[in-house]
């Protein structure tokens, strides 16, 4: 099975052109990434307001998947068979596993917040912060416990899969590893410099 790239929206990926991944494997985008018209195969989102925005924009740039929630009004979306109540990033990862992928690269899945000026507490970490359906960047970082637990479950229930987080080595917050993922043996971390080396060696599939 080919590689799959899960594109979350943490700020660690903002200096990398995700369209460069298209030749090397399937690409799964999340939520507001659709606004940028990226080269992706699938768009996954679970938030009701966010997914109604996607539909209202008549987005058809990729196959759109979401939970079977009646409040999500657009009928052209594909629906998962069950609503696990998970966040979008872990759900997108679960979706990739359901498709049979075993080599899963995670970009922008930062978990923690980012520093803002002299403020002691970390702030919202999202490329789309302050835009429609996203919290203001001045707000405190989103609680990451749910993402952590859900990603741990993805890893532990799929020991034959490899999960590779692509991180920015220059900023400490972008190298953050949540407590419950520190002992997960099938999740590793590499940096964007390492990804550049890999991309030079990978065969193009399209």
Provide the low-confidence segments as ranges: none
The helix count comes to 4
Radius of gyration: 16 Å
Tell me the strand percentage band: 15-25%
Shape: globular
Structural class: alpha/beta
| Sheet with most strands | 8 strands, parallel
Report on this model:
This protein is α/β, with parallel strands linked by helices and 206 residues long. The chain has a single domain, classed as sialyltransferase cstii, chain A, CATH 3.90.1480. The protein has helices spanning 48-56, 88-98, 145-156, 192-201; strands at 3-7, 25-30, 42-44, 63-66, 78-79, 103-107, 162-167, 187-191. It has an 8-stranded parallel β-sheet. Strand 6, helix 3 (145-156) and strand 7 (162-167) form a beta-alpha-beta unit. Helix 2 runs parallel beside helix 3. It is globular and about 40 Å long. The two termini are 15 Å apart. 34% of the residues are buried. The mean pLDDT is 93.
Question: How are the elements arranged and paired?
Answer:
Blueprint: E1 3-7, E2 25-30, E3 42-44, H1 48-56, E4 63-66, E5 78-79, H2 88-98, E6 103-107, H3 145-156, E7 162-167, E8 187-191, H4 192-201
Parallel strand pairs: 1-2, 1-6, 2-3, 3-4, 4-5, 6-7, 7-8
Helix pairs in contact: 2-3
């Amino acid at each position: 099975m080919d590689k799959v790239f899960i594109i979350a929206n943490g700020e660690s990926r903002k200096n990398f052109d995700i369209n460069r991944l298209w030749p090397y494997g399937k690409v799964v985008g999340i939520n507001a990434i659709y606004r940028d018209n990226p080269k992706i195969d699938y768009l996954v989102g679970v938030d009701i307001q966010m997914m109604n925005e996607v539909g209202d924009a008549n987005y058809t740039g990729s196959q759109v998947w979401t939970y079977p929630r009646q409040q999500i009004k657009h009928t052209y979306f594909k629906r998962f068979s069950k609503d696990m109540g998970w966040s979008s990033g872990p759900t997108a990862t679960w979706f990739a596993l359901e498709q049979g992928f075993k080599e899963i690269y995670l970009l922008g899945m930062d978990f923690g917040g980012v520093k803002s000026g002299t403020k002691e507490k970390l702030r919202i970490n999202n490329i789309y912060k302050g835009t429609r359906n996203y919290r203001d960047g001045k707000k405190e970082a989103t609680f990451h416990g749910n993402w952590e637990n859900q990603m741990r479950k993805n890893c532990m229930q799929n020991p034959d899969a490899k999960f590779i987080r692509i991180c920015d080595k220059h900023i400490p917050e972008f190298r953050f590893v949540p407590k419950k993922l520190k002992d997960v043996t099938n999740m590793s971390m590499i940096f964007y410099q390492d990804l550049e080396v890999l991309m030079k060696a990978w065969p193009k599939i399209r």
